[in-house]
Amino acid sequence: MWKEKLLTHINNQDQLHKRKQLEKVCQKCVC
Fold first, then answer.
1. Distance of CA 4 to CAs 7, 16, 21, Å?
2. 14/6 Cα distance (integer angstroms)
3. Which residues constitute the domain of residue 31?
4. How many angstroms separate the CA atoms of 13 and 9, rounded?
5. How far, in Å, CA of 29 to CA of 18, rounded?
6. How many domains does the chain have?
7. What is the distance between the alpha carbons of residues 21 and 10, in angstroms, rounded to a whole number?
8. pLDDT tens-digit map of 1-31
9. pTM of the model as a whole
10. DSSP conformation letters of the chain
């Protein structure tokens, strides 16, 4: 049970990280 929670937590962190990187790239493109 806790492993699933941990996995989802890691996935959420990973998605957040990717989103931030994407935003940086998008900002560069817009600029």
1. 5, 18, 26
2. 12
3. 1-31
4. 6
5. 16
6. 1
7. 17
8. 789 999 999 999 999 999 999 888 878 776 5
9. 0.60
10. -HHHHHHHHHHHHHHHHHHHHHHHHHHHHH-
